[in-house]
């Protein structure tokens, strides 16, 4: 394969994203779930994230990289993202899981697009979110049905999540040029492609919002 | 089998103990681990606790009990235990995992001793703690070697954990007489056996302290 210097960065940021998503979802489950059954359901999804972390860590080791070293540059940005987007209730936690992570994952997938097929396969595997999406969508729809006034506040919350994600993403890109380069390479050259990327991300985001009834 | 009314209580308290241990260990790993590798190691142990929770929940369902209902009476006591014993650093977290949970598990194992063999087997399975013990013991011993003055404080911390565990245990026993009865039945009658139980628990506790070099 054409070894891209951004690959270790990409797997590193993804690994820490999964490890921190696991911890955050576990905490949200323990503190915000309205029932023990819901708590268990979100915990199951958290553990899936941990399994993804494991895959990424092992692949980093296979590539001869030190997983801790690969994750380290991204710890503060991702911790800051979680610190600035602490959900206040159960529905906010689910919207965060679905929308916030969703937009981040779209970026990662895009960055991986032109890498070695085995990396693309791994990234696709860890970015699968069917179960998580299904659970979040069902719960949020039911929540809005029970309390229609919640929809407006949740829509605002989703907008804030996207804003914070973009702001952290820019910071990461500025300190890790190799990672930014991956994304640029996958885009090809020229303004048109950047516009196309943003159109694609926005479309995916709007689909998620619509799925939740927001 | 001779259906004991305490069985659902026992599996319920164990299930919630595992579910809350999972959440607490995950949080301790995320906030107190000195490295990402240590964080992953403690997270792995947390996920094992969750797997135990799953086994207990499924058994409750098989017995025709509602898992949430079976766990509910124990939520506040176990949450109080965790709230009152928040570790301040990594070594305190590991001592808590090993010593605090250890003494609680000794009680559960004792309570299960005369139940149906399939229940005894399940309880033994979820109470296995080899991996957790090994990790905690190694880390605490290394920590004390690096900083010998830490030993005295950790010994005090362990004593506090045991005190809090006994106090929460008494509260649970007073509101769940069926569970207390299980323990009494397993003891047989008379003061001698209670003394023997306490001698046994103390011995196991002292062994754990010695293993850590405390």
UniProtKB/TrEMBL annotation, chains A, B:
A Pfam family assignment: MiaE_2
Ferritin-like domain: residues covered: 6-184
Domain of life: Bacteria
UniProt name for this protein: Ferritin-like domain-containing protein
